[in-house]
Write a structure and sequence with these properties.
This protein has 106 residues and is α+β, with helices and mostly antiparallel strands. It has one domain: Ribosomal Protein S8, Chain: A, domain 1. It is 30% helix and 22% strand. Strands 1-2-4-3 form a four-stranded mixed beta sheet, with helices on one face. Strand 1, helix 1 and strand 2 form a beta-alpha-beta unit. Helix 1 crosses helix 2.
Amino acid sequence: MTEFRDRHVCCPCLKCDDDLLRQSDGSIITRDIAHHQETLEQALDKMDDVLQQAWAGYARGIRLIVGGGRIREAVLSQCRYYHDQDYIESYAVEGANQGAILVYLR
């Protein structure tokens, strides 16, 4: 299985030469990573796990429920890093809901 951090490595389709890692089924996976007394480390591990799941399942992105505290800030910081490293396409706080972050992979 390709690690989400290696997603910039092209995996061409044998039939059409399209990059398989850029293809999506359009789905968004939602995961709560902050409301079960997670530590920062546990929350970031859960974030990485759902990112891996999304990449493996060809999801368009993920929606992380992060609350409004330290976990939210840590996830936003991690998203900035992943975006700068080209691991994710984009990310944003979900509209008026400041406790949810949308991360787009493809």
